[in-house]
Amino acid sequence: MAMKRVTIEFNSVFREVNHCRRRYRVLKGSAGSGKSVNIAQDYVLKLMDPRYKGANLLVVRKVEGSNKDSTYAELLGAISRTCGDKADLIWDTTTNPLQMTCRITGSRVIFRGMNDARQREKVKSITFPTGKLTWIWIEEATELEESDVDILDDRLRGLLDNPNLYYQITFTFNPVSASHWIKRKYFDITSPDIFTHHSTYLDNRFIDEAYHRRMELRQVQDPDGYRVYGLGEWGETGGLILTHYLVEEFCRDQGRFDFMVHSQDFGFNHANAILTVGFKDGELYICDEIYVYEHDTTEIIEIAQKKGLSKSLRMWCDSAEPDRIKMWHKAGYKAMAVKKEPGSVRAQIDYLKGLKIHIHPDCRWTLKEIQAWRWRKDGRTGLYTDEPVEFFDDAMAALRYSVEDLRRRRGKGKPRSGGSRIAPGLFG
Ligand SMILES: Nc1ncnc2c1ncn2[C@@H]1O[C@H](COP(=O)(O)OP(=O)(O)OP(=O)(O)O)[C@@H](O)[C@H]1O
Ligand SMILES: [Mg+2]
């Protein structure tokens, strides 16, 4: 079959990565350095290549359900860029089960999670119609435990009948903490089996100008965060604000919660973040997010309407922008300002620390923020202060707003989730 490569292009920083045949291919890098796109494209080309007949790819994220919008979407994009209008002729892709099979080679891509014992057990019994499991891609690998990777590593064994084939695990991640086991296991030693790689958004020629500006801002406002997400260097080991959260799939029907709210932190150059949060038996569930940069209020309202954001829930908003609250209110949402007072940020954080937090894997930006949300360090003493770093904290601000009413009303009756009462004075 004559195949026209349509618009597939690579960043040169990954050239060596894509030729590497070592068992462990470990890619650390800043946000937006092009790791995920590169690995997706690399695998799509290899799986279509008859020289690698018998190869199959297992794609792993900590939470199985996160694959659909990340790794699966990335591979689908790579297929479409590689095969153009022949994509359906060359690849059979299904979402239930999440799976891709190359019709030329018979090679297959499957997706799994490692979040609990059942899922860990499931990866032990993987088989393929042709060939063997040869390649594993672990995306956002810092989410996994070391023991998860050991289980996966055990799957790659036995003689391969195609001499071109080799076993390989690819890791892609942001180096969130210098105390992470990945650093110890792959970076602090040298071994002929390990290939480590470093990339930053500056190596990615496809990144847009606005992204560069945001990163420059971050360099000034959040130097520690910039080290990880801008430079791709190993991050601080301490100072995280929230650590007691769980990323997992759960039922998001309104009826299963004691009550639900929306909460919103306004932004334009910073993100505008809207969370939908449920409360049940003293635990907090972050069910959904809208997270956009450089959109005006009218555009964000349109997004919310398309998404079907419920208008029956209270929407707690940043009080600094009453005009925006008014626009949301006019659009039919129960938008209401969160009252601010000295010490309220700290009090909200303390309150959040007392709640068990569940994050649905669809809330990708919330997860990115919570993993990076830290106390500010005093430049002189090097000690952490009791103020959070005010950067990349927009979903975290929305999260704080979501508990404010509850925090104030502790022991004073049911919180306001619906109803039509409007903050006195706000709308005349
Ligand atoms: N080879 C490529 N061809 C076209 N666009 C690309 C390519 N590589 C990267 N990009 C663009 O750059 C963006 C960022 O790349 P990517 O998502 O791969 O970064 P990343 O290193 O995985 O970031 P993160 O650490 O945040 O997950 C992509 O969304 C895409 O728009
Ligand atoms: Mg990525």
TrEMBL record:
Top-rank taxon: Bacteria
InterPro entries with a match to the protein in the record: P-loop_NTPase, Phage_terminase_lsu, Terminase_L_C, Terminase_L_N, Viral_DNA_packaging_terminase
Domain Phage terminase large subunit C-terminal as annotated: residue spans: 265-405
Positions of the UniProt region annotated as Disordered: 409-428
Phage terminase large subunit N-terminal domain sequence ranges: 22-233
A Pfam family annotated for this UniProt entry: Terminase_3C
Annotated protein name in UniProt: Phage terminase large subunit
